[in-house]
Amino acid sequence: MRITNHANLSDEALVALEAVVPAHTTLMEVVTWGRQLHPSVFLQETIALDEYTHEVLLRWREGLWLVYSAS
What we know:
It is a single chain. By secondary structure, this protein is an alpha+beta fold. It contains two helices and three strands. Strands 1-2-3 form a three-stranded antiparallel sheet, with helices on one face. Strand 1 (43-48) and strand 2 (54-59) form a beta hairpin.
């Protein structure tokens, strides 16, 4: 999975994030993975961009958000 660094994280922080966020191929995998974390990470919001495309937001740690684009 490709992570786009919109938060201007340092290279070290980005590598650490990539190490804990696995490659998800479905939204169900994201939900299952998030529930297994301690503390758990849950879907916070789904934003419809158009009829077929959505962005799904998860509140991550240290004030960061993970945003998954789905179409």
